[in-house]
Design goal:
Layout lengths: L8 E14 L2 E14 L3 E5 L6 H8 L7 E6 L2 E2 L5 H10 L1 E4 L11 H12 L7 H7 L15 H15 L3 E5 L7 H14 L5 E6 L2 H4 L4 E6 L2 E6 L14
Parallel strand pairs: 3-8, 3-9, 6-7, 7-8
Antiparallel strand pairs: 1-2, 1-4, 4-5, 9-10
Bound molecules: adenosine-5'-diphosphate and magnesium ion.
Length: about 240
């Protein structure tokens, strides 16, 4: 008899809600969210603008605090963590890729990637150049962000996130500002990162992108309305059009 290996949960949300008070009104960005993501999964979170996608990533990455519920990431309960523990968590457990890149403008491509390496401490600084070569930017290592195109900046952001080698990679509309060719290159890199000890969550409003996921979680008005593989199973990236 073969022993089934139980996958390790990397992200768990139990009854998570996030509400904002805006004047007299309460806005519910997330409501009663229960979710488990295991190592190896490449998950796309799909939903229209305002459905709570960014809020979901932010609470998983401890950039925002839920109003209710419990969140466990990389085995650590971040809902009850101290500031010091969260500081460490943000450096060594999660990595973010933002729609608007968020590179350090005063640092070169190489220094931006070295920053990620320094934060997590899992790689040698000397690996930064190799990480940039892997995203096709071997000839741009000494460029500052303003000297790079949008697609190139996003590839630096991807290299910086991958360079941390952290277990949970969170990407918020990472192809939103990119042309099709650059966007699919970035998706290829993100999908390759999901594997043993690593899970990847990509947030998008673009249903086409969700076709390549192992698993698609649909959000509507802050609630999960469906969760499962895309119809027909994950499609190869070469089949995407947008
Ligand atoms: P998405 O990323 O899917 O577009 P968001 O997570 O950014 O959605 O937002 C979900 C909902 O929460 C939206 O209705 C938005 O207006 C609201 N919201 C987000 N951030 C705030 C905030 N800081 N204050 C008040 N409302 C907010
Ligand atoms: Mg958003």
């Amino acid at each position: 008899m073969t022993q089934e290996q139980t996958p390790t949960p990397l992200v768990e949300l139990h009854g998570v809600a996030r509400r904002y008070q805006v004047g007299p009104a309460t806005v519910t960005a997330l409501d009663s969210v229960d979710l488990r993501i295991d190592e190896g999964e490449f998950v796309v979170v799909l939903g229209p603008s305002g459905s709570g996608k960014t809020t979901l990533l932010n609470v998983i990455g401890a950039l925002d605090t839920p109003s209710e519920g419990r969140i466990i990431v990389g085995g650590q309960d971040i809902s009850s963590a101290s500031r010091g523990q969260l500081f460490d968590f943000r450096r060594r457990t999660v990595s973010f890729i933002f729609q608007s890149f968020n590179l350090f403008p005063g640092l070169t491509a190489r220094e931006n990637v070295e920053f990620g390496i320094d934060a997590s401490g899992r790689r040698e600084r000397s690996e930064a150049v190799k990480m940039l070569q892997d995203v096709g930017l071997g000839d741009r290592i000494n460029h500052f962000p303003h000297q790079l195109s949008g697609g190139e900046q996003q590839r630096v952001a991807v290299a910086r996130a991958l360079a941390t080698d952290n277990p949970v990679l969170l990407a918020d509309e990472p192809t939103g500002e990119l042309d099709f060719r650059t966007g699919t290159q970035i998706l290829e890199l993100l999908r390759a990162e999901a594997g043993p000890g690593h899970a990847v969550l990509v947030v998008t409003h673009n249903r086409e992108i969700s076709r390549i996921a192992d698993r698609v979680i649909e959000l509507s008005s802050g609630r999960i309305v469906s969760d499962g593989p895309p119809p027909g199973g994950p499609a190869p990236i070469s089949e995407l059009h947008w």
